[in-house]
Amino acid sequence: MLNNSKFIFFVALLAPIAGCSSFGKGVTEAILESQLKEDIRVCEVKGKSFHGVNHQLDMQGNQVKVLMVHGVGEHLPGYSTKFFEKLASALFLTVESKQFKNITLVSKDNPERKLGNLRVKRFLSSDKTREMLGYELTWSEITAPQKKFLAYDNSGEHSFRRAEVNDLLKRFSNDKGPDPIIYLGDSRQEILQAFTQSFCWMTSGHWDELPADMTQACFWQDNWTVEQDNYAVVSHSLGSRITIDGMQHIAAQLSKGVENKMLEQLVYTLKQKNIPVYMMSNQLPMLQLGRQMPMISDQEAEYCKPTGAKYEERILSGTPIYAFSDPNDLLSYTIPHDFVTTYLDSRLCIDVTNININIASVIDVFGLGKMANPLEAHVGYDSDDRVIALIANGIGHENANSLVKERCRWIETID
Predict the structure, then answer these.
(1) Which residues lie below 8 Å from residue 320, measured CB to CB, with a gap of 6+?
(2) Residue 13, domain extent
(3) CA 378 → CA 185, 237, 353, 388, distances in Å?
(4) What is the pLDDT of residues 194-246, one digit of tens each?
(5) Judgement on whether residues 208 and 301 belong to the same structural domain of the protein
(6) 184 phi, psi to nearest 5 deg
């Protein structure tokens, strides 16, 4: 990541135009660092009020299961540790399990084919009455073999010829750029299987019933606990597309087994569930390019209203999407309403809240214009305190976090 100190150094290279370079650099750093200290970053929420994960902890069972789905680039198990610890702190869950439970995901049809890793951590309130299980899906090992083709470009043979900043940007591009392209190819089905397996494990039993350090496939018939569970998904960039596609994949998979009474009950129970999805650096509009239209679209009234003719054919009771987008994140987009109705499956009953938030600070560079670090704007969502506070406690009600009340503007929307 191109951090702020390197970014400031990059901007300081402009200083010789004004005179002595060493003096210019010192003045540049002093001015820019003073701007960074004054936090005037935008946070604007446009949508209905919502209560966040904390509200789900107050629901039946006092438990919530949160699945994290990473985006483009190589990730290693444990990438979500900082996010889950910050979220647990915001929810006052001060007790955690000593160990993680790691499950090597494999295909049900081909147990030899590994699909990534699912890591689970347990967080509890001090009186042990409230519980959050954090599920972290790492799917990047599916795309890693194909990305090795570009490894030569990161070698010293080529990288030493680039300027430092350009080399950082090229490595960023080589690591993250190929994944959306690969996802459009044959690997897409395996990545969706990884999501489906992760969701299956999330619905299968409680902490004590989960396997630890095992390679194992999950089957929907196994000890599912959907009726008493509360769920949420947190995704980043390509992970948001995987989540939406994955939910449709699960619905198609379960519908094939409706003759099985247990699966029929599972499908019915899911239809009663409301599963919020918190999308960081949302890329759904860009990742729709070149894709086929969904089988069912622009029919929200028929599938999502109790009076609708096809209400019993919905996938979920509701899928509220909270789309976090930094305008200076070059890979992030808001979600317009017509995109939802045209390009997303009506059976998911999606309702979108767009959150316009500056993750990276905007800096005025000596009258040359305002600029922000686009890399920080893309990767910094999961450590931003305002993002964490919104996921934990939402906005538009008295129990919202004080940081959100002070720093975020809420624009209520109505139907």
Answers:
(1) 50, 274, 276, 277, 350, 351, 352, 353
(2) 1-38
(3) 24, 9, 19, 16
(4) 999 999 999 988 899 999 999 999 987 667 788 889 999 999 999 999 999 99
(5) yes
(6) -75, -10
Nearest to 379 by CA among 7, 64, 70, 25: 70
Q: Which residues of 213-243 are buried (b: 16+ CB within 10 A; e: fewer)?
A: eeeebbebeeebbbeebbbbbbbbbbbbbbb
How confident is the model over 330-380, as pLDDT tens digits? 878 889 888 999 999 999 999 999 999 999 888 776 666 777 777 788 888
Number of H helices, E strands in the chain: 17, 14
232 φ, ψ (degrees, to nearest 5): -150, 155
Dihedral angle of Cα 283, 286, 291, 296, to the nearest 10 degrees: 60
47 & 15 share domain: no
User: CB of 347 within 8 A of CB of 317?
Assistant: no
Retrieve residue 396's tokens.
Answer: 């538009």
Outline where 13-97 has alpha helix (H): 21-37, 52-57, 81-90
Number of domains, the chain: 2
DSSP assignment string, 150-183: GGGGGSHHHHTTS-HHHHHHHHHHHHHTHHHHHH
Cα distance from N-terminal residue to C-terminal residue, the chain: 41
